[in-house]
Amino acid sequence: MTRAPAIAELLAAGAAQLARSDSPRLDAELLLCHLLDRPRSHLFAWPERSVPAAIAEQFRELLTRRAAGEPVAQLTGEREFWSLSLRVSADTLIPRPETELLVELALAEIRTGGGQSALDLGTGCGAIALALASECPHLAVTASDASDAALRVAADNAARHGLQLRLLCGDWYAAVPGERFALIVSNPPYIAAGDPDLDADALAYEPRAALIAADAGLADIATISRGAAEHLLPGGLLLVEHGWKQAAAVRELFTAAGLIAVRSTTDLAGRERATQGRSQSRSQGRSQGRSQSRSQGRNQGHSQATP
Ligand SMILES: C[S@@+](CC[C@H](N)C(=O)[O-])C[C@H]1O[C@@H](n2cnc3c(N)ncnc32)[C@H](O)[C@@H]1O
């Protein structure tokens, strides 16, 4: 009969096998918790407890796949984001911890009176939209994606957490024709094809369409910026995540799209990872219209006077 090894023994062997991972012990713990259907505290409380041989065998299989580069979240089908356990699949990006910065900025906007409606463009498994819905029960949250398969995962996550999302499929704003929102938030694809920083494992195990964008990674952010004024309520906020070397280019795109109060925010490592900009309020639009026509008048006068 095959011997049933103890939890501590399996974890030690697992961590040794995953030595090339950034977090070998944690990876091994998460995989074993998934198979045992127990929280991590169970491993710490019962290190000497034996694990059934069949589960130990499945654990070794998962370790082999993890050692070959498959992300833990793909192996367990689950990822924590904003203290929500979210289902992920091969059709969704695995939500990253850095995207929680976008949630923090969005919540700061909502809590300082920034309106009652939010749109999450490119929602994937629903991470940002569900984090906002979980924090703000009165917020009407719409979440869109070009991938039907990703939206099915988002719908499942919403149901698992008892949260309301309006889910729509379409190419960026095509999903919400004629609609306006107080807040538009997006973590779009922003990695340039061939970027040396691109995690080879991510490319192999996550959908390419969720990661890579044309024009040095800026094509989707440019599309989202250009359509913002048409889909934000007056004074509404657009908030996007981007690569840490893209902030200046994103600020330019926002400004060119007519957004005001454009600024970037740094993450804990001091890198600019999110940029926001506001649509003009009605009064700003009116006064800018007046000053534009005054300055056009001046310019016309000047050009008329110039031979
Ligand atoms: C970087 S992932 C972000 C997923 C999720 N919001 C998150 O933060 O984990 C980008 C998402 O944008 C979606 N996407 C890509 N191109 C799109 C398009 N043209 N229109 C709408 N969504 C798109 C992808 O399917 C993917 O789910």
How would you characterize the overall build of this protein?
- With 307 residues, the chain is of the alpha/beta class.
- It starts with 6 loop residues before the first helix and ends with a helix.
- It has helices spanning 7-17, 24-36, 40-45, 53-67, 72-76, 100-111, 127-135, 148-161, 200-205, 219-231, 247-256, 282-305; strands at 78-81, 84-87, 117-121, 140-145, 166-169, 181-186, 232-241, 260-266, 272-278.
- It folds into two domains: 7-68, Ubiquitin-associated (UBA) domain (Helicase, Ruva Protein, domain 3, Orthogonal Bundle); 94-284, 3-Layer(aba) Sandwich (Rossmann fold).
- The longest helix is centred in the C-terminal third of the chain and has 24 residues, at 282-305.
- The chain binds S-adenosylmethionine (SAM).
- S-adenosylmethionine (SAM) is lined by residues 93, 95, 99, 122-124, 127-128, 145-147, 150, 171-172, 187-189, 209-210.
| Rg, alpha carbons | 24 Å
String of helices and strands = HHHHHEEHEHEHEEHHEHEEH
Number of helical segments with 4 or more residues: 12
Bound ligands, each once? S-adenosylmethionine
Beta-strand percentage range: 15-25%
CA distance, first residue to last residue:
101 Å
- Fill in the CATH topology of the largest domain: Rossmann fold
Instruction: Give the overall form.
Output: elongated
The biggest beta sheet, please? Answer: 7 strands, mixed
Count up the domains. Answer: 2
Number of DSSP strand runs: 9
